[in-house]
Write a structure and sequence with these properties.
The chain is α/β, with parallel strands linked by helices. It folds into two domains: 2-145 and 282-332, Medium-chain alcohol dehydrogenases, catalytic domain (Quinone Oxidoreductase, Chain A, domain 1, Alpha-Beta Complex); 153-277, Rossmann fold, CATH 3.40.50.720. It is 28% helix and 25% strand. It contains eleven helices and 18 strands. The chain has helices spanning 38-45, 91-94, 135-138, 141-150, 169-180, 192-200, 209-219, 235-244, 266-271, 284-295, 314-322, and strands spanning 2-8, 11-16, 27-36, 54-55, 59-66, 78-81, 84-85, 105-106, 118-121, 126-128, 161-165, 184-188, 205-207, 227-230, 250-253, 275-277, 305-310, 328-332. The strands form four sheets. Strands 3, 5, 6, 9, 10, 17 and 18 form a seven-stranded mixed β-sheet that branches. Helix 5 links the parallel strand 11 (161-165) and strand 12. Helix 4 crosses helix 5 (169-180) and helix 4 packs across helix 10 (284-295). It is globular, with a radius of gyration of 20 Å. Bound molecules: zinc ion (ZN) (2 copies). One zinc ion binds at residues 37, 39, 58-59, 143.
Length: 337
């Protein structure tokens, strides 16, 4: 079968590899649609080191073609993969935080991933996905699960004002989730197109960064928002989020910050008694909720997908992920020659 392997830093190659078998209690899936995300880019660049060759990728919707237990997961079931690995016995796992497992990992990083025609997965990490969800939306649901998880800790009541800073894939999904909760959502980004997309899908107001302060002031009567979601992942935008936050607000740092920082507006964190959250990964129930939200038509995520690329053109998929004009990039293994 074909699989996209990292063979050296910066080198992803389509290779012919052995098909996985339904042994050791694993189910085998035929891949239907995959997503490429920032973590995959970091693995490709070598910023996140992995052993090689490594089949990349962790976002997959597939169909069960071989099962260790038809009562648990029958053949033919369409499924979403929870790509996190957990040991089940460490302190975090025992305290119902398997997504923070101290011996955990991620498919496509610590073990082979999903950019392959067939993938073997523990049935406990599979969630049935309704046939009614089209591939384009299905390919976004793993990311949506992490966004659901990222908002679990914050209280949002109808009429609360929430600011989402950064309207990439996660920011767009956050806008929709917060709007579903009844918040008045203000979406902030430089991109006119991304502002328009957010405005079509739940944002009450959108603004370029330079106009944000005025829009936020108007919509909150100068009080400031009770929630700011940072969905960019830079220290400058996190600082901005802290500065925009109202007193006693929650700030969710959803972008990933990785060292080399200069410092945050600590006095504001203190003076406004802010709560800063930095959620990571997701739990099975977050993925189940993500499937439900899209399946029930409460969210409309298809437009967030800008590109669907055949598996043979995986390099092009990675190039598109880096393109600021692109949003979600999916890979279709059944497309192409
Ligand atoms: Zn991802
Ligand atoms: Zn564990």
């Amino acid at each position: 079968m074909r699989a996209a392997q990292l063979t050296a830093p910066e080198t992803i190659e389509l290779a012919e590899v052995a098909e996985p078998k339904a042994t050791e209690g694993l189910a085998v899936l035929e891949s239907e649609i995959m997503g490429v995300c920032g973590t995959d880019v970091k693995v490709l660049r070598g910023t996140i080191p992995v052993s090689m060759p490594r089949i990349m990728g962790h976002e997959l919707v597939g169909r069960v073609v071989a099962t260790p237990d038809p009562d648990v997961i029958p053949e033919g079931t369409r499924v979403l993969v929870d790509p996190s690995l957990a040991c089940g016995t460490c302190h975090q796992c025992l305290h119902r935080r398997p997504h923070l497992c101290s011996r955990g990992g991620l498919m496509g990083r610590e073990i082979d991933g999903v950019f392959a025609e067939l993938v073997a997965v523990d049935p406990a990490r599979l969630l049935p996905m309704p046939e009614s969800i089209e591939d384009r939306e299905a390919g976004l649901i793993q990311v949506l699960g992490t966004c659901v998880h990222g908002l679990r800790t914050v209280d949002v009541f109808p009429g609360d004002v929430a600011v989402v800073l950064g309207l990439g894939v996660a920011g767009q999904l956050m806008v929709q989730l917060l709007s579903q909760r009844g918040a008045t959502v203000i979406g902030i980004t430089r991109s006119e197109e991304k502002r328009q997309l957010a405005a079509r899908h739940g944002a009450t107001a959108v603004a370029a960064p330079g106009d944000a302060e005025e829009v936020i002031g108007d919509l909150t009567s100068g009080i400031g928002p009770s929630l700011v979601v940072e969905a960019v992942g830079t220290e400058a935008t996190l600082s901005q989020a802290i500065e925009w936050a109202g007193t006693a607000a929650d700030v969710v740092l959803f972008g990933t910050l990785t060292g080399g920082q200069k410092g945050l507006p600590y006095y504001q964190l203190y003076y406004k008694e802010l709560t800063l959250w930095n959620p990571r990964a997701a739990l099975l129930e977050d993925y189940a909720r993500a499937i439900q939200l899209v399946g029930d038509g409460l969210l409309d995520v298809g437009e967030i997908v800008t590109d669907v690329v055949p598996l043979d053109e995986i390099e092009e998929a990675f190039r598109l992920v880096d393109d600021p004009a692109s949003l979600k990039v999916l890979v279709d293994p059944n497309d192409g020659p």
